Task: structure prediction
Amino acid sequence: MKRNPQGINLDEGVPLKGQQDFDILHLDLFPKETEELNFWLNNGTVPLRLGGQIGTGKTTLINKVLSDAGVTPDITLHFDHESINPKQGEFYGIALAGFIAAALKFQVDLSEISLPEELNHAECSTWETLHTVLSPAKRTLAAHRLRRSVIAEFEQDTDYINGVLTDIAKAITVQKKKPLFILASGIDKFTTSGAAFISIQNLLNTLASFKTLFEVNAVHLFLKEVSGAFSRTEKLCLTACTDEQMQALIRKRMGVYSTSIHDNLIKHLADHASGNPRQALRLLVHYLEAKKQRIAGDDCFARAVLATELDYFLYADKPSDGLIDVVKKDSSLLSNMFMLPGDKETALRALYGNWILITDQPDKNGLWPVTVNRLIETIFNKPQAPDEPEKILLKHYADIHDQSAQGLSLPTSWKSHQATLDQLNLDHGLELNLAEILDVLAAALLSKDRADRVIIAYRDAELVQPARDYLFAKANTFEYQACKHLSLPGGSTESPLEALDDLLAEDTNTSIDIYSLDFGEQWTPKQLTALDSQRDAFIFSQMIWWIPEKVLKSYLSHWTQLRQLFEIYILDDELLGSLSEEDIQADITFFSDLVEEVDESAPGSMVNSLKAVLQYLKKVKHG
Amino acid sequence: MDSMDVKKRRAYLCQKVIELLFSPSTEKEQNQWVFGLVGSLAGFWRVPQNPFTRKHGKYEITADELCITCLCDIRDDGYYAIDFTHYTDDFPEPFRWSQHVDPVRYYRIPLGAFLGGQNAEKSKALATITKEDVSAVLDTLIFHPCEHMHMESCIPHTIRLGGGISNPFQYLFHLRFQFCPILTVQNNEKMRLVELVYQAVKAKQSIDIKTLMEIP
Result:
């Protein structure tokens, strides 16, 4: 991702990676944990679980510590973005590729292990060719399908593969004369009760025989340690940051432009970040989007809070009011609250979904300091009286101006947000027309240097094509961006994950800059959950996902991880209201004049898309 | 050479720079020029969003971080108008001002007629320019216009809005520079443009829009 030294740097909170990122954007938010991780790197012998809630900065911390130490893991396994299709065999394919690569790198003699010869694929009859098949250098559809076919062969014999992995690892250790260091990342994407996590257990058990750094979610730190993969591991937990750290992060991201935001507003944004760096960044993104629409200062803040709430919590499975009451009252929870068998409704859900945030390490009695996420405080035990939304708005206003709400009157300009405030119950999303959506997407779509993602929910399927044409047109305003659209129907007879995997692997003459995907209504819960665990496969792609509004609630409830990377909008039906034929025609005339080449130029592509939009508008308006 | 020669040399150079950088001729070239400029603003200002929209045939450029929008109307008869709006929470109404140039209705000294074209004196002057000459000329055209305004109550003192710029493309280009708050970018841009112009004048070559709008 392109960074702006001293300028403004916005993204969805993708991990920092590489020296440029660290030089421009890194803040030392976890000095103590950094020291502990460094100690483990140099001296540790047992595996380590590095855990933290979504958006705390786990991957950034790992990348930074390894970079500063000049250490590269012997084996790095990304379980969350090698493939969209996380079946058990896929996990073993990832592990095997990593282990073979290390063996080849260290020139280990693997002749005693006969796996390549035992497979019924001539293309991978040697260790070198097997590695090439499992980890192709170039993503092509053919390579992708061959890989899947080979994996299918050993999918039923994972015990045997576990043995192969162990043998390879031992051989590498003997050759290196040092313990093998493995980084196993992406496990944080799998909920403890999900099928994916269950299917990866045996593999994790194998990995836990070595000096392995497991990147996990906070919920994985509470797994019962009597048996299982993590029974032999140490734990290191990242907790929520301080408000001052969040202010520093916001200022860092704004660069020299940080003076353009009042200190007071930075403090309020930081406060509502609740110590979560990614949440802070999302609030900042939405704040700047609102500011661009010339909304007044403190109204921008209200809009930022609402939009971030919707991105992260719209239709998400809420924990019980009872749990939230306990946290509000006691600001703590005992460890065993997170380990209750069958507890799907309360503590673990609250933790995994960031409804509550761990603020510090536990005391010796296993009591964890926690707080309710500031963003969603107001929606629990929501008052039902008609005038209550205005009271909530008044509280926000008072907070921003460091005043007591007692006796305060709400300014007229704030009363206009009444409708917006009503949406704070998170039962429906922020409705915008297409031009408004474009305003907020402008940063996302108008630059190849960004890799942003949006979910657009629609009611009328007929609007999707012209809306998409319009967005594609605007995406090509300044530079040519290849846009590709695909329908991805789900359902028990479909394989949307494989289709998506194929799409991302497809070799075309022109690489795709923006993927547009229409999900349809039939995705099953299993398919949705599987997609959620592969969130990081999309981290470098610009995406527009179209989802029928009637299934948005169902889909989002399975996408706790995915929604961290997406902004969510609902397209209202007034397409005609937001687009003018005259403006579109003027743009066509203007950009046609700029066209130098017929094919594959930004103005050329824009003109074609705009013509499609104009045709639609004329058809609807004039018949 | 005595100081008069230096001043005359720089006068010729000034005119030459305007011809090289700020004189797209046809309507298409003018649109391409402006489009090239607005397309470079996000990178130059180091902001995430390209701050440009087209509204009813005019260009609107927004410098969000300064809370300023500029609505630009450029016509092919030399007329141009840039309407500035500074929107702020500190005052109930936005603060507005405009830069207008209307050579059709009002007399403008035709410096181009005296300094443009080909003549022996001009050729000799351009052949002997130094980088200091280029730096001085670019200062007065872009970086630190001799006649300029400071809008102290709403934008930083470091921003100098040139009041005597009659060329709309020069005016937009100087805004690109002035509205960039990053000193290192500005300094790098100065060095880049001095070198670019110096080499182009010496080699008697033109400068294309893409090269002109590169990000330092």
Strands of chain B lie at 52-55, 58-63, 68-74, 80-86, 95-101, 148-149, 161-162. Chain B has a mean pLDDT of 88. Chain B touches chain A at residues 27-28, 31-32, 35, 39, 42, 45-50, 54, 56-57, 62, 64-67, 87, 89, 181-182, 184-185 (CB under 8 Å).
